[in-house]
Description:
GO molecular function: RNA binding
Oligomer: single chain
Helix content: 25-40%
Number of helices: 4
Family: Belongs to the SmpB family.
Low-confidence stretches: none
Region (Disordered): 130-157
Organism: Bosea spartocytisi
Keywords: Cytoplasm, RNA-binding
Amino acid sequence: MKKPDPERYRLAADNRKARFNYEIKETVEAGIALQGTEIKSLRGGKATIGESYAGPMGTELFLFNAHIPEYLEANRFNHEVRRPRKLLLHRREINKLMGAVQREGMALIPLKVYFNDKGRAKVELGLGKGKKLHDKRETEKERDWNRDKQRLLKSGG
């Protein structure tokens, strides 16, 4: 799957702990079916996808537990804040992802919600396995070492 170019999209929500908690094997870009007030609220940039996950409901994939706050100017025509939102993928992609989740015990984690160059809301999904505690410690050690290495190189040390 193609990776989105960072200069061509605007980030609406980011799941920063996902790569720390999960070992991401593959990423997939999916469209998301939103109501009018949800898209306006997303453009405000206050959405959170930290506790959200993607999973099957019938024969389709949905994004569960994503928090898109109410659009304040919409008064009574507002949306439900944590409703399941349909993910727009081709049937072959849905079957492939659902097979990996059911057979191999993997998880579908939303990594980021962004607007592409056409202004459409997209979700970048990561297909991965949960990390064990020792793997998380190893990731943290590696990150600290890289930070220290940069500091030493910068100071000429």
